[in-house]
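User:
Can I borrow your eye for a moment on a structure tokenisation matter? Would you put together a sequence-and-structure record for a protein of your own picking? Please set it down just below, with no commentary around it:
AI:
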Amino acid sequence: MSLLVTDYSWTQTDSTVYISVPLKGAKVGNVDVLSTDEYLKVHYPPYLFEAFLFEPVDDARSTAKVGNGVVVVRLPKRTNKVWEHLMITRNNKEKIKKVRERVLLQYQKKLQSESRSLEEKQHAEKKYALETIMKLEKEENYRIHRMKDTVREKATAELTEWQLKQKQKAEDAQLIFQCQRHDQNKLKVTPENQEDGCLVGQKVKVDPKYNNEAKSKNNQPDLPLPRLVGNIQVTFTPRVFPTALRESSLPEEEEWLKKQADVRRAVNADVVELKDLKEKERSLDWLKDKGDKCFVTGDYLGAVNVYNLAIKLNRKIPALYLNRAACHLKLRNLHKAIEDSSQALDLLTPPVAANAGARARASVRRGSAFCQLQLYAEGLQDYEAALTIDPHNEALQTDTQRIRAIIHATATNPETQ
């Protein structure tokens, strides 16, 4: 059950309407603003503000700012004139019904349009990313092929040069061998008449460069045989990301992986915690009894932990939220007490005689939290709702009268506020 906000304020010019809605301690992230040409809604549980506007506005240029405990909505008018009222009267139920239907239809169309736009944007981004990756891979493959071609051409040139040198060496050795054999056939060679491989007195035309090359070649050691062909095993460090390490930014990747692990742990925390429970600890009745015992003995924090575990097992039992709200009241966690009481009231629907007592307790606990936050108007609404259920409860009557007195004193003497 939502509480209607009545302490709003509004101002206007000929062209614009300004509406200020107090947040009443709600968090900024929990505020939901819905605006169309004819309707405005500001919802921050358990509060609700809605306005069926007196004249249509330009929703495309409307803005809303949330901060400093207030929501300020700026609504440009379609026609430059002063409005007599901000909203149409709620007595015109037929017109309000038609406006609600049009607003719902417009909102659905807007959501569908935003969904299609988001899908198209994501599709375009994926297409661009894929094209970029394909382009980079193509460039990388071209660079690798060009590098291979360069290495292959260099190796081929070196092999050709080596083959030519070997062929020249073989020809030189053959020529020297033929020259020496020719001299031996003509004269008997002795140490006295041999000089530099030729016979003294024998005119043999041999180019001196062949003798020098032959001597230098004979002094060179023999070249080793070519190495045998083998396989070299190469292993790579496994990586989560497909890109090469030289192209990646390692700190950013590690931070991203850490965030993903934190998200997985947060999602699986409840599952792991429930798996560790014993069989009797998975019983809702056992957990509720244990929480009640902790509350009776004054261990309010322990009772909250037990009720938290029970709610993880089943989130549809209003008594668990109602009991946890009582613990939060004892611990002065007033906002949490309001949230749990509101959740219990939402589950206690439809209102029937069987859940009347629980609805009365939930209203009283939420009203008590409001009063401790000095939000007496909201607290009075909850106490009056509880009195409607249990009109003969003297304690409720006394507390309600006391809250009315505080509100009256505050209204007549604002300095005491």
Q: What stands out?
A: The first strand starts at residue 3 and ends at 4. Residues 187-206 have pLDDT under 50 and may be disordered.
